[in-house]
Design brief:
Helices cover about 75% and strands about 0% of the residues. The chain is mainly alpha-helical. Helix 1 (about 1-15) packs antiparallel against helix 3 (about 35-60), helix 4 packs antiparallel against helix 5 and helix 4 (about 65-90) packs parallel to helix 6.
Length: about 140
């Protein structure tokens, strides 16, 4: 239980780094291909997440949770972090809307035991992908 709580706190800690939007001049590479740029951002966040949570996952796998429980919790954390990164660019450059959307994502992910959770998670994930691509494409000046 302590490892699961530690992993959840770590997800919340990592999500705080994705709240403040960067200046638009740093988005110049994203304006060429927003989809590929978003995939790289999410992949980089998941790489950092995997590297930093490896000790927690190892501890959980050696406890009563086993490898299945550790993998399920790691997958849940990866989904939360991926959606937080996408929420950052869904309402770029408005920091308040970014924070509110990230709060909504975290609230949605706390409904983990509810029967509607998989469908709601799927809809939120697809909506964030669509909105972040649309928002980044508005900054193109081709």
């Amino acid at each position: 239980m302590a490892s699961a709580l530690g992993l959840g706190v770590w997800v919340l800690y990592l999500s705080s780094f994705y709240g403040t939007p960067e200046p638009w001049t740093m988005l110049l590479p994203a304006l060429r291909q927003p989809g590929a740029w978003l995939r790289r951002r999410v992949a980089l966040a998941l790489l950092y997440y995997s590297a930093t949570t490896a000790p927690f996952v190892l501890l959980m796998s050696l406890s009563q949770a086993g490898w299945g429980g550790a993998a399920a919790l790691w997958l849940w954390g990866a989904a939360v972090l991926g959606m937080v990164v996408l929420a950052r660019y869904a309402f770029y450059p408005h920091a308040l809307l970014v924070r509110l959307t990230q709060g909504g994502v975290l609230t949605t992910c706390l409904l983990f035991g509810h029967p509607i959770y998989p469908a709601l998670l799927f809809v939120v994930f697809l909506g964030l992908i669509w909105k972040s691509r649309q928002q980044l494409s508005t900054f193109r000046h081709d």
